[in-house]
Write a structure and sequence with these properties.
Number of domains of chain A: 1
Largest interface: A-B, 36 and 36 residues
CATH topology of chain A: Rossmann fold
Shape of chain A: globular
Radius of gyration of chain A: 17 Å
Number of strands of chain A: 9
Distance between the termini of chain A: 22 Å
CATH superfamily of chain A: P-loop containing nucleotide triphosphate hydrolases
Largest sheet of chain A: 5 strands, parallel
Oligomer: homodimer
Helix content of chain A: 40-55%
Order of helices and strands of chain A: EHEEEHEEHEHEHHEHH
C-alpha cells in the first residue's frame, strides 16, 4: 500500500508501562520502526545499546547537539535524551512510520519541527497505579520515586497538548489503541485525497 | 469501559461494497449498533424489514417528516431514505455507538445537527472498480447503472467533507480501518480529559 509513513510520538510518565506497550506495537505492526534515542543515562538491566537506546557519554551527546545531529533533545531527571535525525529521515523515505518514545519536552520540540507528527500520551486509567508500579519496579530509591511522581504530575499537566490519550491498564488493549490510531491517521481525508483526484 | 458512544456516518457510492464492510464491523464490534433507516424503495433480494431497512410507503414517510421523527432524510435515485431519531437517542443513552449507512445529502444533515459525528467515506482504490461491481451485481438495468455512475461521480466530489476515507479493496481490511477509526476517535484527548483531571 502506498499510504505515507507517519511520525508517532509516544510519551507517558515513568510507571505508565509505555515500554511494554510500545514493544507490542512494534511486534505486531511491521510498517512501524522504533526510533532509537541517544541517552547519557546508564543502561537498566536487560537494555541493549543500539536497540533500546544508544548509551553515550555527556561529551559525545554535546557534540551531537553542536553538529545539529539531533531532531530533539531534553534533560530529564539528571540525564540527557535525544533523537538522532538521520535514521528517522531514512525510514520515512522508505515509506515506514517512525515511533518515538520520548518525554514531554522532546515531544513539544518534535511538534514544533514536524507539525504533522501524531502525539500520543500513555497513562493508566488511575494515577495511583503509577505510584504502585514505580514501587513494584524496585530499581529506584524512595527519593528517586518521589521525584518521578512529582515529574509525572507535571507531565500530566502537559497531556492536553497531545492528540490522543491511550489508557494502559492492559498492554494488549493499549497496543491495539496505538495501532488503531496509526491506521486511522492514514485514513484521514487529507492523506487519501489522491484516491478522489482520479474522479473529481 | 466508560468511553462515550459515537455517531459514525458511513457513506459511499453504489458499488463501493459498503454494506459488506459494515456487516463485518457490526459482527466484530459489539459496542456499535446499526441505525436502521426508513426507505420508500423496494426491498432487494435477501433484505429484511426492520433489519436492513424499515420499508415504508411514501405517505408514511411524509408523516415521519411532518412529525419531526427523522434525524435526516434525503431523496436518492427516485426514493426517500431517512433516519428515525428515537432509536439513535436510546442507544447513545446506553453508551453505545450508532453507525449510519447513509448517502451524502443525509450525511451533511447529520454533520449540521451533530457536529461531533464522525464521517467516513468508503471507496475502492480505483473508480473503475465501481463500474465493474455495479455491472457484476446484475440487479439494475444498464440505464440505472449509468445513473448510479453519474451519481457516484457527484458523491466523490463531496468526499472532501468527510473526516476519513476508507479503502475497500478487501472487506476485512476496510472493516479493520473503520474499527480503528472508532477506537482512535475514543482516544482523542478531548474525549479522555477526565483521566487527567484527577491529577491536574
Amino acid at each position: 500500500m502506498s499510504d505515507c509513513g507517519k511520525l508517532i510520538v509516544v510519551s507517558g510518565p515513568s510507571g505508565a508501562g509505555k515500554s511494554t506497550v510500545i514493544s507490542r506495537v512494534m511486534e505486531q505492526d511491521k510498517s512501524v520502526v522504533f526510533s532509537v534515542s541517544a541517552t547519557t543515562r546508564k543502561p537498566r538491566e536487560g537494555e541493549r545499546d543500539g536497540a533500546d537506546y544508544y548509551f553515550i557519554d555527556t561529551e559525545r551527546f554535546q557534540k551531537m547537539i553542536d553538529n545539529g545531529e539531533l531532531l530533539e533533545y531534553a534533560r530529564y531527571v539528571d540525564n540527557f535524551y535525544g533523537t538522532p535525525k538521520a535514521p528517522v529521515e531514512e525510514n520515512l523515505a522508505k515509506g515506514l512510520s517512525v515511533l518515538f518514545d520520548i518525554e514531554v519536552q522532546g515531544a513539544m520540540q518534535i511538534r514544533d519541527k514536524c507539525p504533522e507528527a501524531i502525539l500520543i500520551f500513555v497513562i493508566p486509567s488511575k494515577f495511583s497505579e503509577i505510584e504502585k508500579r514505580l514501587h513494584a519496579r524496585g530499581t529506584d530509591s524512595e527519593e528517586k520515586i518521589l521525584q518521578r511522581i512529582r515529574t509525572a504530575r507535571i507531565e500530566y499537566s502537559m497531556a492536553l497538548n497531545y492528540d490522543y490519550i491511550v489508557l494502559n491498564d492492559d498492554p494488549d488493549t493499549a497496543a491495539n489503541e496505538i495501532k488503531s490510531i496509526i491506521t486511522a491517521e492514514k485514513c484521514k481525508t487529507a492523506n487519501r485525497q489522491k484516491y478522489l483526484s482520479e474522479v473529481c
